[in-house]
Please model this.
Amino acid sequence: MDNLTTTKRSELMSRVRGRDTKPEMTIRRLLHARGWRYRVSVKGLPGTPDIVFSRLKTAIFVNGCFWHGHTCRLGTRPKTREAFWADKIETNKLRDSRKNDELASRGWRVLTVWQCQLSDTDAAISEIEAFLEASKHIPSGVGKNEGTKETKLGI
Ligand SMILES: [Zn+2]
Model:
């Protein structure tokens, strides 16, 4: 039996899905405190990345484990309406991988941070900072798939 009522679950889901979710805010606050400057929810980029470091051409998505189908405890699917949830979550996963590919083809580096990683914020921030530091050493504008194609993203 699913122990959440439908109403409670949809409340929970809408919170998880929205912008400025708690894990995202936590990461933004910690990065800001450590001197990183970024833009948020940048609409000119595929997938509207949550946190964007324009100069480093690096985008971060902070994903809720349930909606984005992470294989962890938080990503456990309800036992009821299994096909319904599987369909929704698989669709989200496909969209995630498509937007990551689009960003990569435009020369962006993409990091996905999972909600469950926030159980250890120090480790999560270290990983993000290591990724950002690595971005500094990669020539900007060089995409994995398209070489040195210029992009006009208005950012
Ligand atoms: Zn997770």
